[in-house]
Amino acid sequence: MHFRIIIRTFAPVNEIEDGGPLSFFMKSMNKEKIIQAIGPAVKERGCFLVEVSVSADNDIEIVIEKEEGIVDWEDCAAIDKVMHEVFDQDVEDYALTVSSAGLDRPFKVLGQYLKAIGTQVDVKFKGGRRLTATLLKADENSIGLKYTALEAVEGKKKKEKVEHEEVFSLADINSVTPYIEFK
Q1: Beta bridge partners of 143
Q2: Of 84, 118, 155, 170, which is least packed with CB atoms within 10 Å of its CB?
Q3: How many other CB atoms are there within 10 angstroms of residue 127's CB atom?
Q4: What value, to the nearest 5°, has the Cα angle with vertex 174 and ends 63 and 98?
Q5: Cα–Cα distance measured from residue 69 to residue 79, given in angstroms and rounded to the nearest whole number
Q6: Handedness of CA 147, 152, 155, 161 (dihedral sign)
Q7: Which tens digit of pLDDT belongs to each residue from 22-54?
Q8: Tell me, what DSSP letter sits at residue 127?
């Protein structure tokens, strides 16, 4: 079973001499500088970046995924440590969350698709169609899926299971998530 691991740290709100919070005047941190700062540590841990987001309030969320295996607490802690070494939390006044992509989040980067090849995925298409299939291949523009559908077969009264292998454009897909089977 995979669990989502989250490490969250907070900085105190900066105060000016008269006691009012400075956070109103705060400038957002630069996403590209964050990516550049943590990139080597992410690779060292055998991970890749899924997402880095910075809110107007300097709430930073870093989402990582492991090339092989699952993200563990040490992976998240290592990235958290690098952030604190490079960016002084008291000066920058940020809140930081480092987490794994988790099973509930849709794939966002090619690395997630590549890692999931050979596994079951849930696909939600634009227009509402849903499909559970085996991911066969992936590139920047499309994914290949293998799935079974009940279909009318000529000369048969009952619908039968028919296996399909198709390539779908990512432009036609709303989301792809790992398939979770509860037993």
Answers
A1: 138, 168
A2: 155
A3: 7
A4: 5
A5: 17
A6: positive
A7: 444 456 789 999 999 999 999 999 999 999 999
A8: T
* Pair 13, 92: CB distance under 8 Å: no
Which amino acid, one-letter code, is at 157? K
As a whole number of angstroms, the distance between CA 113 and CA 33 comes to: 26
pTM above threshold 0.85: no
Architecture label for domain 6-100 = 2-Layer Sandwich (3.30)
What are 26's two structure tokens? 């705060």
Q: Is 18 exposed, middle or buried (0-12, 13-18, 19+ CB in 10 A)?
A: exposed
Q: Is residue 62 a contact partner of residue 96, using CB atoms and an 8 Å limit?
A: yes
Domain assignments of the chain as residue spans, ordered by start: 6-100, 110-178
If one looks up domain 110-178 in CATH, what number appears? 2.30.30.100
